[in-house]
Design brief:
The complex is a heterodimer of chains A (561) and B (369). Among the domains of chain A are: 222 residues, P-loop containing nucleotide triphosphate hydrolases (Rossmann fold); 71 residues, Alpha-Beta Plaits. Chain A contains 18 helices and 23 strands. Chain A has a 6-stranded mixed β-sheet, sandwiched between helices. Chain A has a 6-stranded mixed β-sheet with strand order 19-20-21-16-22-23, with helices on both faces. Chain B is mostly helical and 369 residues long. Chain B has 2 domains: 233 residues, no CATH class; 103 residues, 3-Layer(aba) Sandwich (abc type-2 transporter like fold), CATH 3.40.1710.10. Chain B is built from 14 helices and 4 strands. The two termini of chain B are 27 Å apart. The chains are: A alpha/beta (561), B mainly alpha (369). At the A-B interface, α2, β5 and α3 of A face α1 and α8 of B.
């Protein structure tokens, strides 16, 4: 069998600012596999795909794709490959049929063959009933299928898909994966880039990138297999899993990773160490790909966060956040419908759902950024609608993608945020000093916050959000696109704050992140379809994603009735 | 060819379905033309003017009634200079005219006299216009006097001004054609500046680059479709000016079409260039306004006379494409086909357009870097 891709000592260095996007990668990919290109944002996934397509020129090294040189034989190569860029590369003002016709024309598919291909593709993607609908009016999942359909025009031998699953609901993601596997059975090779580690387990082969380096190339099962016998879970349900986790960290147990999973703690033992120092009863569990990735990356930081040392939030009522039938309409579009829940003091409450499901709308209504069409929201018994400012004084808000002023330095950001939270004089000076100590920001004070390493950006964003010592923290997609180690560091901080009584509401579209929450509301098509603890939602042996898909399927007949 | 056709068809569909392109191509020009035609009026009709007569009032009745009858001035009489000056300071009047004590004698040519015009020059036009109107009124009154009394009277200086092309001196006649040039710059540049940037922002450019479409085809498709849209917009503006606002058109429509096409070739090229370099719709629209619209308004000679600018600025105006189109369109509307201007400036536009296309071809990359 021939290889579809041969890469030899490939380097790609961008200038201004100097970034080594691809660092000395050598690999070859055999034909007929679904290959996952896995890694956090900025690992080099998109750069590698663009190099394979000839859209970027390597700084050094050799590439050959389908035995062609992507730089010198670009046009020849493009005749045999299909490429779906991020955001799917569709024209939103054009209908499904018009998009397909355009791409068929641009790929010079003869009229005779076109009808046959369209027929098959529309059937394959299930889009046949909607051909007249504008691409801009399609759901994320349908856009993704149309994107794939346009990519498949002209019968390519090799498909390159750049993050096709981002923000799309899990059902659509599952369907896409099935479609891709049926293509593989027809002999098409696929390269699928993703930042979801849980997605990676399903691929024939995984290329794991981190900081431009290829750290693993092979069957994900082989990598996961190596973790056999090292992954454990606490045997009984813990009353307070966060305390157990903290205790394990404080005692310096020989672990490379420990995370909350519902009411349990999941542990990875360091290589060749015994369970002797683990003072809670544990049972072995099946390793996951993510466990293996954490292990290759050198393990997570295993010391408890110090950030909560100086937090004192005083006395609070039992129920700190109340949402009562919150509904938000945009025209006749229902963004959120009758969403109700209570959040107790010291709880981590997650809003889980795909992009566009209504999590952000719910979130915005509760922090006073959007006015509900009907319903009420209370923060510490203050009406969010009548008195948003008083209610907001109790909130720390961390927006998506760490909304800092990226051209301001770290210290300028801290000063600005302390100012807008109304801190003055020595109180302000002290608080800033405290934040610098807690988050260890000292070495970076003068640097523009845009240039910080991701982990420090996250710390700074968190520091700015808790400047006014709020008893409630709202986190909007806090770890989207973040590598698993930085994500653990972040949750370590959050856990330590929660132990001090801080209440956290968090949105996420990472199904596995829901495991860190005490309770979750599953948001789907504007409604909270299920609220409960992660263990209540999952049936025996299910992952969170399985559970979500099952709950959506169970829910839909009800909605139709 | 098939690919080009598909790309152009796609552009048309996008234009039709995107309300903002219709807004920029038809609603915006409609508003601009209406504003230029009605609100911006450099004629300054009916300046409030105070009249002070130093000498014997009965001797100057004729001339006073001539002043009062003028449609260019609204005259209020004051008994003294002081009174009139106070009114001027208060802003009741914008200019004052003082007829000197010997005016009656000067009027019939027996003595020399000077009429004083005092104007509020915070609007410099007022002073100039008032002086000119006063001169006109006096001259006309003198002429009438001469005709009625026979030619035995020795008259003072006679001024005769003849206005070519725009005998009624309506500013609308020269403002509207020039504003069409400005609008064509705006449409050609702003619309096209947005479209390539939009393809980059939405990730569709990346898809296009992996199909068989070449960069020449991608660029040409943009030119063709936005040329058609901008041309429709230009026809619409011309129709508005000529039919609705009564501006005369004296040249050849064919020449107008050809030269406009040349000018659009340049504008669209500049728009594409901005779009390709910025790859960002926000930056592109700001750049289109800064480098396209403002120079076209200020430096093209459309609204402000180039010959009254400092020498160095005059030279600089040559690099603005609109500077070369304004003389053509101005002449086509008001004077007719002035061939030397048409040929000379068309050649300039063609050179501009070709350079722009060449540069665009060079900066457009089939790769992402």
């Amino acid at each position: 069998m021939t290889n579809i891709v041969e890469i030899n000592r490939l380097n790609k260095i961008f200038q201004n600012p100097d970034i080594t996007a691809i660092d000395n990668i050598t690999l070859s990919l055999p034909q007929g596999e679904v290959v996952g290109l896995v890694g956090p944002d900025g690992a080099g996934k998109t750069t590698l795909i663009r190099l394979l397509l000839g859209l970027l020129v390597p700084t050094s090294g050799e590439i050959s794709v389908l035995n062609l040189n992507p730089v010198k034989q670009t046009h020849q190569l493009h005749c045999h490959i299909g490429y779906m860029p991020q955001k799917f590369g569709l024209y939103e003002d054009l209908s499904i049929a018009e998009n397909m016709n355009l791409y068929a024309d641009l790929k010079e598919i003869p009229a005779a063959e076109r009808a046959k291909q369209f027929d098959w593709l529309l059937k394959f993607t299930g889009l046949a009933p909607f051909t007249k609908r504008l691409a801009g009016r399609l759901s994320g999942g349908m856009k993704q299928k149309l994107g794939l359909g346009c990519t498949l025009l002209g019968n390519p031998q090799f498909l390159l898909l750049d993050e096709p699953g981002v923000g799309v609901d899990p059902i659509s993601r599952q369907e896409l994966m099935k479609m891709v596997y049926s293509l593989r059975d027809k002999g098409i090779s696929v390269l699928w880039s993703t930042s979801y580690l849980d997605e990676a387990e399903k691929f024939d082969r995984v290329l794991l990138l981190n900081n431009g380096k290829l750290i693993f190339n092979g069957n994900p099962k082989d990598l996961t297999e190596q973790m056999q016998g090292r992954v454990f879970q606490t045997a009984a349900e813990e009353k307070n899993p966060r305390q157990t986790l903290r205790r394990l960290m404080q005692k310096g147990a020989p672990l490379t990773d420990a995370v909350i999973s519902g009411r349990q703690v999941r542990l990875i033992l360091q290589n060749n160490r015994s369970l002797e120092q683990i003072d809670v009863p544990v049972k072995p569990v099946t390793p996951r790909f993510e466990d293996a990735v954490i292990d290759i990356l050198g393990g997570a930081e295993m010391t408890p966060s110090t950030i909560a040392r100086q937090i004192d939030i005083g006395n609070l009522p039992d129920t700190v956040i109340k949402a009562e039938n919150l509904t938000k309409m945009y025209g006749d579009f229902i963004a959120a419908q009758n969403i109700s829940f209570n959040i107790k003091r010291g709880e981590i409450f997650g809003l889980l759902g795909p992009n566009g499901a209504g999590k952000s709308t719910t979130f915005k209504m509760l922090c006073g950024l959007a006015k509900p069409t009907s319903g009420q929201g209370f923060i510490l018994n203050t009406d969010m609608i009548k008195n948003p400012e008083a209610a907001r004084a109790n909130l720390g808000y961390m927006a998506q993608k760490f909304s800092l002023f990226s051209t301001l330095s770290v210290i300028q950001n801290l000063k600005f945020f302390s100012g807008i939270y109304g801190l003055r004089g020595t109180a302000r000076e002290n608080r800033i000093k405290q934040m610098i100590d807690i988050f260890e920001l000292k070495p970076y004070l003068g640097q523009p916050s845009g240039n910080l390493p991701l982990g420090f950006k996250q710390r700074l964003a968190l520091a700015c959000a808790i400047m006014h010592n709020p008893p409630i923290l709202f986190l909007d997609e806090p770890t989207s696109g973040v590598d698993p180690l930085t994500r653990r560091e972040f949750w370590n901080h959050i856990n330590s704050m929660v132990e001090k009584g801080v209440t956290v509401m968090v949105t996420t579209h990472f199904m596995d992140e829901a495991e860190y929450c005490d309770r979750i509301a599953l948001i789907y098509q504007g409604q909270a379809i299920k609220i409960g603890t992660p263990d209540e939602l999952k049936k025996q042996g299910e992952t969170m994603e399985d559970a979500f898909i099952r709950l959506i399927n169970e829910y839909q007949p009800e909605a139709a009735a | 060819m098939k690919i080009l056709k598909a790309l152009v068809y796609k552009e048309f569909l996008q234009i039709i379905r995107d309300p903002s392109s219709i807004l920029i191509a038809f609603i915006l020009p409609f508003i601009l033309i209406t504003i230029f035609a009605t609100a911006i009026n450099l004629d300054n009709n009916a300046i409030e003017t105070g009249l002070v007569i130093d000498g014997d009032r009965s001797q100057v009745n004729d001339i006073v009634s001539a002043f009062e009858g003028s449609r260019f001035l609204t005259v209020t009489r004051y008994n003294s200079r002081k009174e009139a000056q106070e009114a001027l300071i208060r802003g009741d009047i914008r200019a004052m005219v003082v007829l000197p004590i010997n005016f009656a004698k000067a009027f019939v040519g027996e003595q020399a006299a000077t009429i004083q015009v005092l104007a509020d020059a915070s609007d410099p036009n007022v002073a100039l216009f008032t002086a000119a109107y006063v001169q006109g009124i006096v001259a006309t009154a003198q002429k009438i006097l001469l005709e009625t009394n026979g030619s035995n009277l020795h008259s003072g200086i006679q001024i005769e001004a003849v206005s070519w092309y725009n005998p009624e001196l309506k500013s609308r006649y020269f403002i509207l054609p020039n504003s069409i040039a400005i609008i064509m710059t705006l449409i050609g540049m702003l619309l096209t500046a947005l479209v390539i940037a939009r393809e980059w922002e939405r990730g569709t450019m990346e898809s296009l680059l992996t199909t068989k479409a070449s960069k020449l085809q991608i660029i040409t498709a943009k030119y063709i479709s936005y040329y058609c849209l901008a041309m429709l917009s230009a026809i619409f503006c011309t129709f508005l000016s000529v039919i609705v606002f009564d501006v005369p058109f004296r040249g050849s429509l064919v020449v107008y079409f050809v030269t406009s096409s040349l000018f659009l070739f340049v504008s669209i090229g500049m728009g594409c260039m901005i779009s390709t370099l910025t790859r960002n719709q926000f930056l592109a629209s700001v750049a289109a306004a800064m480098f396209g619209f403002l120079p076209a308004v200020i430096l093209s000679g459309g609204l402000f006379e180039i010959s009254s600018m400092p020498r160095i600025i005059q030279i600089a105006t040559n690099i603005i494409p609109a500077t070369h189109f304004v003389p053509i369109i101005k002449n086509l509307f008001m004077a007719g086909n002035i061939w030397p201007i048409i040929f000379g400036e068309s050649l300039n536009l063609l050179i501009f357009g070709l350079i722009m296309f060449g540069l665009l071809y060079r900066v457009t990359k089939e790769r992402l870097e």
